[in-house]
Amino acid sequence: MNTHYSIASLSQIADGDEEFMAIVVQTFLEEIPPDLEALTKAIKNNNKELAYQFAHKMKPNLEMFGIAVQKDIKSIQAWTRSAKSEHLIKENIETLNTVLCHVFDELKIDFPI
Hints:
Layout: H1 8-14, H2 18-44, H3 48-64, H4 70-80, H5 90-110
Helix pairs in contact: 2-3, 2-5, 3-4, 4-5
């Protein structure tokens, strides 16, 4: 089954420690969904400073799980430093939400708590 994430980087960091990997996955599942919700809300409210903070906070976690949304995160971060409307990144935040919802579901199946 193809997944929307990869644990290759996490596995390397964990050096094969399954318990450590499970803890990292659990932490990801506890922290990233509310961060994603806050990022989405900040964008909707045109709060660029807050949107940048959440995008910046989420970025290393998304990279660690090999989630292919780096282009979207970078676009959101670039938008926060511009005077442009949030409509410019509507597709990026939609993609981010869609992909991460798949990741959350897949991780819950692959790493049952």
